[in-house]
Amino acid sequence: MAKDKSAPTNTGPLNSGAFPLGKKNFLLLGVGIIVIIIGFLLMQGGGSADPNEFNPEIFSFRRITLAPIVVLLGFAINIVAIMKKFND
Length: 88
Known about the structure:
By secondary structure, the protein is mainly alpha-helical. 50% of the residues lie in helices and 0% in strands.
């Protein structure tokens, strides 16, 4: 039986064994993940031990404004880290 010459070969950017992202991309991904974790840490707290007692601390600037901005910044960093091609 003859070999089929029209069979696809394992060449190309995805099958060459090289990673599509470089070292700078992975470092930027790590920074983005750390920024997201910091944003979630800023959101926590402000609860009350007694469920019948209201604690107005849950509406602080840190939890309502700063923490979501930090989390969105972390996601933006991750998007840039995935999409940008650095010259390594």
